[in-house]
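Whiteboard transcription, Tuesday session. T.W. wrote the structure tokens on the left side:
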């Protein structure tokens, strides 16, 4: 069922959003992207006169218990975002100390059309992450309709993201606009891309990206590999990589990927040169060939030749997927590979290519370069987008589609 097909007027609409925003030490919102991206759904519900009940998690309170073993309700309360939410929605936001129970139920029933109630952090309760049925049924009691707009947690089979959906018949549950657009954008790239389709894959570890690479070599024309993971591939080809990141247990798999890619006519580009340092620190490095790195050096970024050859491939692409930084971009001296690639992707997009930035650090690089509006789609879900692109079925998505 699509959200537009559900009669929402006067209904209590329970929405799972992802308001897990970064907060400063004094609990100010550092980046409100996740709230901003949920607004189209919330505005739509408001304009349809629905009573809006919002559920979210904030942080990992069960993993960061206080010394006495209890949940830190001061640090992880969603109360921190009430004022901001109220400002951006231009309406009072009511709050309830528990995401279930008498007070929550009473407030949900008293809510008038267009009003908003925010429930306390669902992860204060261990049952959330366990996908507990009883807990999910208590949450479900607060709504007549269930909307899931939390793409960032769609890969988790939690009570508020997945289990809860079984308490709503198919005609009373749907994706919100954000979650739907995440699926549509990922499908556009993986199911019906314009060609050439190029994937830029970086990040620290090959092990995190093996499944993605295996899927990509069945779909794409080019793969540009950078970041720490590139050096396992370079070693697998016989290169000397010094102290660069390497996962020796993945050397064979890396070789297999290179062979499979060739068989599928997929061109894999590894960085021809790298910027190296003798230590993992933010001091000036030197440029060397990536396959002849001295024993005492480690590669912390791709080099100028690699940046240039990657740019040429990116500019010839009609569709681009980018996941993971190409170097230690948190260090000023090793951020050039990542930021130059952000510029190349933006330029290709300006020239007509479609670009999807697949979450996590590559999103942060695009935002830091002020190129947020210069790419086609920025995903709000790092892990969720990765799993979706790997071809996995995400429990939060499946639960909406099943009766
Ligand atoms: P991931 O979480 O796997 O996407 O990896 C992101 C992290 O990889 C970032 O914190 C980068 O600093 C790190 N990274 C990227 N390139 C390298 C490199 N050549 N050596 C060490 N770490 C790297």
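and on the right, the sequence the group agreed on:
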């Amino acid at each position: 069922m699509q959200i537009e097909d559900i009669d929402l007027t006067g209904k209590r609409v329970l929405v799972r959003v992802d308001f897990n925003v970064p907060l400063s030490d004094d609990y100010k919102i550092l980046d409100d992207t996740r709230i901003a991206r949920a607004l189209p759904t919330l505005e739509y519900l408001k304009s349809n006169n629905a009573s809006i009940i919002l559920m979210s998690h904030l942080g990992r309170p069960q993993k960061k218990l206080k010394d006495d073993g209890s949940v830190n309700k001061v640090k992880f309360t969603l109360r921190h975002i009430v004022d901001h939410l109220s400002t951006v929605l231009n309406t009072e936001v009511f709050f309830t100390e528990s995401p279930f129970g008498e007070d929550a139920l009473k407030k949900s029933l008293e809510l008038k059309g267009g009003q908003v109630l925010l429930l306390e952090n669902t992860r204060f309760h261990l049952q959330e992450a366990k996908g507990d049925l009883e807990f999910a049924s208590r949450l479900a009691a607060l709504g007549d309709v269930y909307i899931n707009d939390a793409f960032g947690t769609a890969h988790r089979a939690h009570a508020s993201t997945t289990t809860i959906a079984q308490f709503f018949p198919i005609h009373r549950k749907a994706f919100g606009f954000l979650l739907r657009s995440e699926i549509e954008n990922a499908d556009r790239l993986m199911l019906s891309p314009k060609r050439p389709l190029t994937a830029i894959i970086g990040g620290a570890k090959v092990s995190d990206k093996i499944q993605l690479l295996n899927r990509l070599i069945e779909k794409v024309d080019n793969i540009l590999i950078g970041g720490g993971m590139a050096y396992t591939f370079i070693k697998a080809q016989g290169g000397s990589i010094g102290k660069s990141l390497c996962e020796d247990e993945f050397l064979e798999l890396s070789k297999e990927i290179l062979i499979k890619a060739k068989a599928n006519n997929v061109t894999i580009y590894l960085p021809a040169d790298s910027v190296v340092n003798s230590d993992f620190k933010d001091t000036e490095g030197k440029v060397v060939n990536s396959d002849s790195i001295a024993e005492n050096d480690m590669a912390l970024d791709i080099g100028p030749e690699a940046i240039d050859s990657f740019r040429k491939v990116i500019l010839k692409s009609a569709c681009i997927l980018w996941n993971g930084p190409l170097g230690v971009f948190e260090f000023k001296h090793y951020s050039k590979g990542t930021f130059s690639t952000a510029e190349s992707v933006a330029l290709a997009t300006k020239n007509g290519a479609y670009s999807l930035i697949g979450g996590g650090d590559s999103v942060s690089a695009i935002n830091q370069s002020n190129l947020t509006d210069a790419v086609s789609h920025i995903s709000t879900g790092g892990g969720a987008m990765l799993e979706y692109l790997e071809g996995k079925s995400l429990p939060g998505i499946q639960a909406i589609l099943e009766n």
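Someone added at the bottom: The radius of gyration is 23 Å.
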